[in-house]
Amino acid sequence: MFSQVENIKHKTTGSNGQGCSLDERSRIQVLKAMGIQPWFSKYAAIQSGEKIQQAAEALAVESSSVSNNISELNWQQLQQTISACQLCELHTSRTQTVFGMGNPAADLMIITEAPDKEEDRIGEPFVGPSGQLLDAMLKAINLNRENIFITNVIKCTPPDDRKPHVSEIVCCDSYLQRQIELVQPKLILALGRIAAHHLLVTKETLGVLREKSHSYNGIPLVVSYHPDYLIRKPIEKRKSWQDLLQVKSILKKS
Ligand code: URA
């Protein structure tokens, strides 16, 4: 019987134990399973095909103090740590980090993708048209930003409106994990492919994922469409409404 880490190593090294390059999803699994907060440069080494065992050991040595510390931080310390983070290249282009907003003891935690340019300037998530739609979605189930907590899988804005790189998501993962541990939500709502794929360690389509029940470390998790997508494809709002009703029903029961 393999442990989670051994299982991943087995899958990625082959029977002769020789290392080989990993796909992105496996790399996340390995890092998550080992509880590692990765060092960007070392992560890049894994991407270039360095032996997994060797790279994982290097990561463990260099970053164990970082991830151990993060798992002990309180809310304020976590905010300070995130605001000073330099784990990936995004720190060079940001105005400020975007920690998240709302109630740190909320029953519902919404996790989405990444702050955009305007949010980088203001320091809050969802300030533009997608924020207005999100507010309307929350209002439809009698919620607002004061009684939920909303954050992104990454805390800095990627340049040129691009999607977050996996390496950036992995660098931010212990921050997100600690936020979830501290909020202790009764339900997580993952909006969009990036958040859903990261939290559930899957590549299934959003259409498939939103039809299924999920959990993240024992917390029920609902997958739905990102507000940006709903703005581009308003016809999908009907499905999004079904997801919101599910959210409402799970919160009512919890
Ligand atoms: N703003 C955010 O904070 N997150 C998104 O995913 C999109 C816009």
Task: Give a verbal description of the structure.
The protein has 254 residues and is of the alpha/beta class. It is built from 12 helices and 6 strands. The longest helix is centred in the first third of the chain and has 19 residues. The protein folds into 2 domains: 67 residues, no CATH class; 157 residues, Uracil-DNA glycosylase-like domain (Uracil-DNA Glycosylase, subunit E, 3-Layer(aba) Sandwich), CATH 3.40.470.10. Strand 5 and strand 6 form a beta hairpin.
What is this entry, summarized?
By secondary structure, this protein is of the alpha/beta class.
Task: Jot down its keywords.
254 residues, alpha/beta, Uracil-DNA Glycosylase, subunit E, 12 helices, 6 strands, 50% helix, 10% strand, disordered N terminus, binds uracil
Strands, helices and their partners?
Blueprint lengths: L3 H10 L10 H10 L6 H8 L4 H19 L4 H9 L17 E2 L5 E5 L4 H6 L6 H12 L7 E5 L13 H18 L3 E5 L1 H8 L5 H4 L4 E3 L2 E6 L2 H6 L4 H17 L1
Parallel strand pairs: 2-3, 2-4, 4-6
Antiparallel strand pairs: 1-3, 5-6
The chain binds uracil (URA).
Uracil (URA) binds next to loops.
Q: What is the 3D form?
A: globular
Q: Would you tell me which CATH topology of the largest domain applies?
A: Uracil-DNA Glycosylase, subunit E
Share in β-strands: 5-15%
Sheet with the most strands, sense and barrel status: 6 strands, mixed
Corresponding CATH superfamily of the largest domain = Uracil-DNA glycosylase-like domain
Number of strands: 6
**What is the strand arrangement across the widest sheet?**
1-3-2-4-6-5
Distance between the termini: 35 Å
Low-confidence stretches: 1-22, 37-53, 59-63
Work out the helix count: 12
Q: Kindly give the count of domains.
A: 2
Q: Can you tell me the CATH architecture of the largest domain?
A: 3-Layer(aba) Sandwich
Hetero compounds: uracil
What is the mean pLDDT?
Answer: 83
> What is the string of helix and strand elements?
HHHHHEEHHEHEHHEEHH
CA-atom Rg in angstroms? 18 Å
Helix content: 40-55%
